[in-house]
Amino acid sequence: IKAPMPGLVLSILVEPGREVVHNEPMLILEAMKMENVIKSPGEGKVKRIVVATGKPVDKGEVLIEME
């Protein structure tokens, strides 16, 4: 899952190894003073969380790896 826009990671709602379903909230990204909920694009398992809470990200940067 990649960042759709530059912003700041406010919170991470999943952990590695967790099974997720389509459209499940996974991460909250603040961009332009708005909170954007990043949701799962499909079913799968969270392989790795690449970013950390409170860190800025660029557009297109990998946030979470799934398998």
In helices, the fraction of residues equals: under 10%
Structural class: mainly beta
Distance between the termini: 11 Å
Q: What is the topology, as strand order, of the major beta sheet?
A: 4-3-1-6
Number of DSSP helical runs: 0
pLDDT < 50 runs, ≥5 residues: none
> What portion of the residues fall into strands of 2 or more residues?
over 45%
Largest sheet: 4 strands, antiparallel
> Could you tell me the number of beta strands?
7
What is the CA-atom radius of gyration, in angstroms?
11 Å
- Name the quaternary structure: single chain
Shape: globular
Provide the succession of SSEs: EEEEEEE
Q: Which whole number gives the mean pLDDT?
A: 95
Structural notes for this entry:
- The protein is mainly beta and 67 residues long.
- 0% of the residues lie in helices and 48% in strands.
- It has no helices and seven strands.
- The chain has strands at 7-12, 19-20, 25-31, 34-39, 44-49, 56-57, 64-66.
- The strands form two sheets. Strands 4-3-1-6 form a four-stranded antiparallel sheet, with no helix packed on it.
- It is globular.
- The termini are close together.
Descriptive tags:
0% helix, 67 residues, single chain, 4-stranded antiparallel sheet
